[in-house]
């Protein structure tokens, strides 16, 4: 750093003080030899691990490359992605209504939403999928009508519950229970004064939620929702037990014929890792977008604290 950069005429007084303090801190900072050694050891172990995997003939990487973009695998991948999108969208919509119901002043809505969340969070997703797939065992016919009155419509359960509808119902309804708690937590994170302000302006509850509360709650909702989306990608592998042709089911169908279990499983693993990596990148961009205002305010608060520290340091130096 040149003398010109520290000249009071070149930079504002606060910036000069901050730069001086940073120079002092850097000058007296000891070299972290332990950190460098840890980095070197970690890199060596990682490179050795990758080398062993790459040269292990039991993985049969040539078979992995052969099946990685095979037509049957790509069909299974498209089913996995489609299930994820549909189930996630339905889960978010139902979860939003459940979260609003839990925050409602109507005790019946609070009780019904709480029971829903308790049941679907308290039972394994695999059990729920199998239950939906075998729903016809309990209810051979599904009908709609007036309670204790005439029947308006009826369907054969086997015609309604296919592997696709069972997979969507199981994944979406289970996801709704988790999204309800995520959204409820986000709504509770909004300053209560915002709600009072909307009431003072005569806004209806629905309009206040759409225009004021939900946009602010998105900062708290987005990160766990991204985690849920990644979990949903992996949870779709469970639908293979109900003969749904997802990515894992397609892989199993291949290695049941060829007996190449490990390389085909590696195909599935690599696709799951690729998809979740892309989703992680997208999640980070969305988080930064919604954290802009919060980051600015926290930076200002931190800057104010730093200014106090810098000022004290300068005064101590002048006193000496």
TrEMBL record:
Keywords of the record: Amino-acid transport, Cell membrane, Membrane, Transmembrane, Transmembrane helix, Transport
The protein's name: Glutamate/aspartate import permease protein GltK
Transmembrane segments: 36-54, 74-101, 108-133, 261-282
Any one GO cellular component localisation term in the record: ATP-binding cassette (ABC) transporter complex
One GO MF term: transmembrane transporter activity
Topology class, membrane: Multi-pass membrane protein
Oligomeric and partner information: The complex is composed of two ATP-binding proteins (GltL), two transmembrane proteins (GltJ and GltK) and a solute-binding protein (GltI).
Gene Ontology BP term (one): amino acid transport
């Amino acid at each position: 750093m040149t003398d010109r950069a520290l000249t009071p005429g070149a930079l504002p007084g606060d910036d000069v003080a901050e730069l001086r303090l940073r120079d002092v801190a850097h000058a007296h900072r000891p070299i972290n030899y332990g950190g460098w050694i840890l980095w070197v050891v970690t890199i060596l172990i990682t490179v050795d691990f990758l080398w062993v995997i790459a040269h292990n003939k039991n993985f049969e990487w040539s078979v992995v490359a052969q099946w990685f973009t095979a037509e049957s695998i790509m069909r299974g991948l498209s089913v996995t992605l489609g299930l994820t999108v549909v189930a996630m969208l339905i889960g978010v919509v139902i979860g939003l209504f459940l979260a609003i119901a839990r925050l409602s002043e109507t005790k019946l809505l609070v009780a019904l939403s709480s029971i829903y969340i308790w049941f679907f969070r308290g039972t394994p997703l695999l059990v729920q999928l199998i239950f939906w797939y075998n729903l016809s065992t309990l209810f051979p016919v599904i009908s709609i009508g007036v309670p204790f009155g005439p029947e308006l419509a009826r369907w054969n359960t086997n015609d309604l519950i296919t592997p696709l509808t069972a997979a969507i119902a199981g994944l979406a309804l289970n996801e709704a229970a988790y999204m309800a708690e995520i959204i409820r937590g986000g709504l509770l994170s909004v300053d209560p004064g915002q709600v009072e302000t909307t009431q003072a302006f005569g806004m209806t509850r629905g309009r206040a939620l759409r225009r004021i509360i939900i946009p602010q709650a998105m900062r708290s909702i987005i990160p766990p929702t991204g985690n849920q989306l990644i979990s949903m990608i992996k949870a779709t592998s469970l639908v293979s037990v109900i003969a749904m042709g997802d990515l894992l089911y397609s892989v199993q169908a291949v290695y049941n014929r060829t007996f190449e279990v490990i390389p085909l499983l590696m195909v599935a693993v690599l696709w799951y890792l690729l998809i979740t990596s892309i989703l992680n990148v997208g999640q980070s961009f969305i988080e930064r977008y919604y954290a802009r205002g919060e980051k600015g305010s926290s930076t200002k608060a931190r800057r104010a604290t730093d200014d106090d520290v810098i000022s004290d340091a300068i005064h101590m130096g002048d006193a000496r």
